[in-house]
Specification:
alpha/beta; Rossmann fold; five-stranded parallel beta sheet; 8 helices; globular; binds adenosine-5'-diphosphate; binds thymidine-5'-diphosphate; Thymidylate_kinase; kinase; nucleotide-binding; Probable thymidylate kinase; P-loop_NTPase
């Protein structure tokens, strides 16, 4: 089973991912951007305020393709529970927002269709729902994606994803205390497994 954690920067995904790792030690824990040279290339682009948004999309997508073949598919083939901190929905939500002013007619559909022929959809996704202001504050606004006005656009793209596939998503109220968020996460994962 492939479980993904999605949400704005600072929504508490990584905190939950670590807690789940302690609770389910036999599962495979992974993330995007990955810990590989493709992931390094992605982080170089994140740190470049002038990166071309389309070039950036393809860097992230290359990292995803490598992640799928090297980590995700082999682990799923062995029957493992795979938990990924960010996955394809991050691309659809974030790059649809960065590509809003590009020549693409509908960046959301473009990015989604780019993945469809080769990717593996998550079986379930926890969406850490937090307002863009709290997200920007918690993340410390350390990169170009962590500004509240941009995160507002990203959140709207996530809502579009949830509307298109409501059964896959579990919405977690990420404005609650850490303890309550983790209780909700554990309850959701226990139910899904
Ligand atoms: N429920 C919460 N309430 C307040 N602060 C939180 C909560 N969950 C996480 N944090 C803090 O917010 C920051 C971002 O959390 P993190 O888990 O790294 O988010 P993400 O992986 O979604 O960017 C960290 O400093 C973390 O300790
Ligand atoms: C995986 C992915 C991440 N991102 C962005 C979200 C983050 O701002 C940044 C790095 O991701 P990450 O390190 O997961 O940030 P955080 O822990 O703060 O959520 O890359 C995309 O724009 N597209 C993607 O496909």
């Amino acid at each position: 089973m492939l479980l993904t954690l999605e949400g704005l920067d600072g929504s508490g995904k990584t905190t939950a991912w670590r807690a789940l790792r302690d609770r389910y030690p036999s599962a495979v824990f992974t993330r995007e951007p990955t810990d590989s040279w493709y992931g390094d290339a992605v982080y170089r682009s994140i740190d470049d305020d002038n990166a071309d948004p389309l070039a950036e999309l393809f860097l992230y997508t290359a990292d995803h393709a490598d992640h799928l073949s090297r980590v995700v598919r082999p682990a799923l083939d062995e029957g493992s529970l795979v938990v990924s901190d960010r996955y394809s929905d991050s691309r659809i939500a974030y790059q649809a927002a960065t590509l809003a002013d590009s020549p693409l007619a509908d960046p959301f559909e473009y990015v989604r269709d780019l993945h469809a022929p080769f990717s593996r959809s998550p079986d379930a996704t926890l969406f850490f729902d937090v307002d863009p202001e709290t997200a920007a504050e918690r993340s410390g606004e350390t990169n170009k994606f962590e500004r509240a006005d941009y995160l507002r656009d990203v959140r709207a793209q996530y809502e579009r994803l949830i509307d298109a596939d409501p059964e896959r998503f579990v919405r977690i109220d990420a404005t609650q205390t850490r303890e309550t968020v983790l209780d909700d996460v554990f309850a959701a994962v226990d139910r899904l497994r």
